[in-house]
């Protein structure tokens, strides 16, 4: 237990540091941003090249990951549009809701008079990206599916805002918060987990998902890590055959699993080893991913501590 004390204290310190970043951008850097001087050329995940010549002052972010990042960079007051799913931090709720981030209403976006729009790099957003470029609005489109994706996106968005040094601080803090959880004692036999995310068809987390990486950071193993897709469709028979130690699910899905007699084919369900996961914490690879890893670690530790199995 004492061996884990220092890493846990470090994790708390890192989380506190990250929380303060948004409000702690130094006055000198803010003054430099107001001068509007940036100079960078970036290529986004759609292959579009954008020259950043002035610090963005009005940003529409249609990706929950980038919305959280903007607030962490101390630029929450520049966010003028978000999606219906962007509810963190609390201050984000005061930002105008522009609906779904996939295939957005371009007219509504333009109506916010942004000088920068951030999109998720889904094919359903390609048309919106093209229309925004055609309207002369700087637009950056990125995939944010894996832990490493945030690290490559942070410096680009920080540069677009003119807050490069704050961006480096955020990137370093997020990396350290994840590494602190990864450094905790590893179990000799990791807890094997099945992560339920959807019914009809039955979807799980595959090796292409950030949440599969998160399980590994927490000291567990995804039984479908061999699937390359982020969210592959699987059969209940295959879940039973892979025989996970524990089932992870959101509150509604956990209830459905308990009530559906077909799930009794899975030993973990018969044994009641179903963990209810807060998807608002673990569902996106954003600046809180260290917190998400700690959340999973605690959930798995609490579940197996009484039997002595799984994580130490």
Topology record:
Elements lengths: L1 H20 L5 H8 L5 E4 L5 E4 L6 E4 L1 H9 L6 E3 L24 H6 L4 E5 L5 H9 L4 E4 L4 H15 L2 H19 L8 E8 L4 E2 L5 H9 L1 E3 L13 H7 L3 E4 L1 H9 L7 H4 L3 E3 L2 H4 L6 H17 L7
Parallel strand pairs: 3-4, 3-5, 5-6, 7-9, 7-10, 10-11
Antiparallel strand pairs: 1-2, 7-8
Helix pairs in contact: 1-7, 3-6, 6-7, 7-13, 8-13
Describe the structure.
There is one protein chain. This protein is an alpha/beta fold and 312 residues long. The protein has 2 domains: 2-179, Rossmann fold, CATH 3.40.50; 187-305, Rossmann fold (3-Layer(aba) Sandwich). The protein is built from 13 helices and 11 strands. It has helices spanning 2-21, 27-34, 64-72, 106-111, 126-134, 147-161, 164-182, 210-218, 236-242, 251-259, 267-270, 279-282, 289-305, and strands at residues 40-43, 49-52, 59-62, 79-81, 116-120, 139-142, 191-198, 203-204, 220-222, 246-249, 274-276. Strands 7, 8, 9, 10 and 11 form a 5-stranded mixed beta sheet that branches. The chain has a 4-stranded parallel beta sheet with strand order 4-3-5-6, with helices on both faces. A hairpin with a 4-residue loop joins strand 7 and strand 8. Helix 3 crosses helix 6.
């Amino acid at each position: 237990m004492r061996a884990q004390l220092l890493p846990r204290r470090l994790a708390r310190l890192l989380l506190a540091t990250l929380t303060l970043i948004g409000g702690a951008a130094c006055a000198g850097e803010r003054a430099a941003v107001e001068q509007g001087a940036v100079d960078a050329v970036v290529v986004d995940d759609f292959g579009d090249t954008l020259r950043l010549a002035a610090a963005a002052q009005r940003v529409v972010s249609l990706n929950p990951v980038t919305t959280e990042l903007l607030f962490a960079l101390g630029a929450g007051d520049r966010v003028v549009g978000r999606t219906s799913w962007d509810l963190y931090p609390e201050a984000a709720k005061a930002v105008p809701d522009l609906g779904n981030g996939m295939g957005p209403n371009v007219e509504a976006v333009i109506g916010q008079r942004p000088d920068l729009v951030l999109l998720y790099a889904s094919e359903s957003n390609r048309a919106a990206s093209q229309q925004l470029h055609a309207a002369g609005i700087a637009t950056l489109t990125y995939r944010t599916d894996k832990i490493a994706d945030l690290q490559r996106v942070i410096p680009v968005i920080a540069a677009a805002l003119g807050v490069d040094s704050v961006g480096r601080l955020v990137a370093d803090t997020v990396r350290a918060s994840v590494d602190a959880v990864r450094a905790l004692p590893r179990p000799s036999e990791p807890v094997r987990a099945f992560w339920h995310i959807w019914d009809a068809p039955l979807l799980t987390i595959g090796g292409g998902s950030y949440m599969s990486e998160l399980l590994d950071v927490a000291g567990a193993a995804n039984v479908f890590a061999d699937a390359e897709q982020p969210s592959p469709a699987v059969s209940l028979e295959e879940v039973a055959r892979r025989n996970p130690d524990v089932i992870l699910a959101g509150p509604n899905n956990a209830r459905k699993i308990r009530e559906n007699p077909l799930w009794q084919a899975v030993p973990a369900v018969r044994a009641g080893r179903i963990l209810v996961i807060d998807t608002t914490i673990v569902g996106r690879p954003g600046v809180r991913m260290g917190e998400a890893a700690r959340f999973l670690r605690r959930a798995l530790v609490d579940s197996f501590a009484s039997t002595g199995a799984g994580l130490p």
